[in-house]
């Protein structure tokens, strides 16, 4: 599904020209516009799902995680943090599911 007012749908289908860090038929990876680390990549499915709660397609879930590894390989990073914010109180601001991949700085745990 494509959602007309969704910024990540527009990125995924090329309406907002965005350089791909990695992509295949199902997923698209690109740099976060407001990076929280020297490497901050977002990975999205090309189809619209508002959040992890709406995504039941296990094959696509696998594609998203496989893309994390592809991005890491491509960028030559072996240590990184992968984050999925689900819902407002968890920090989700864009309601098209995305995986954050952050790297190349020291990170604290637990997160704030
Ligand atoms: P979240 O808070 O998990 O929903 O993350 C949304 C992320 O999308 C934030 O890190 C934003 O900086 C990022 N973002 C929003 N709009 C764009 C855009 N047009 N291009 C790249 N990243 C974006």
Q: How would you summarize what this structure contains?
A:
The protein is 21% helix and 20% strand. It has 2 helices and 5 strands.
Note the main attributes of this structure.
5 strands, 112 residues, five-stranded antiparallel β-sheet, alpha+beta, binds adenosine monophosphate
Strand content: 15-25%
Instruction: Specify the number of helices.
Output: 2
Distinct ligands, ions and cofactors found in the model: adenosine monophosphate
Structural class: alpha+beta
Helix coverage percent? 10-25%
H-E order: HEEEHEE
Summarize the main sheet: 5 strands, antiparallel
Give an account of the 3D structure.
It is a single chain. The protein is of the alpha+beta class and 112 residues long. It has two helices and five strands. The chain has helices at 7-12, 58-75; strands at 22-23, 27-31, 39-45, 81-83, 99-103. The chain has a five-stranded antiparallel beta sheet with strand order 1-2-3-5-4, covered by helices on one side. β2 (27-31) and β3 (39-45) form a beta hairpin. The chain starts with 6 loop residues before the first helix and ends in a 9-residue tail after the last strand. The structure holds adenosine monophosphate. Adenosine monophosphate is lined by residues 7, 32-34, 42, 85, 91-94.
């Amino acid at each position: 599904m494509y959602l007309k007012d969704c910024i990540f749908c527009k990125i995924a289908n090329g309406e907002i020209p965005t350089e791909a860090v990695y992509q295949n038929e199902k997923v698209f990876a690109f740099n976060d516009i407001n990076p929280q680390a020297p490497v901050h990549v977002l990975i999205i499915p090309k189809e619209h799902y508002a959040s992890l709660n709406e995504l039941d397609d296990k094959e696509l879930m696998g594609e998203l995680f496989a893309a994390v590894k592809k991005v890491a390989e491509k960028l030559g990073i072996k240590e990184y943090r992968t984050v999925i914010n689900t819902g407002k109180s968890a920090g989700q601001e864009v309601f098209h599911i995305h995986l954050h991949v952050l790297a190349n700085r020291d990170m604290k745990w637990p997160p704030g």
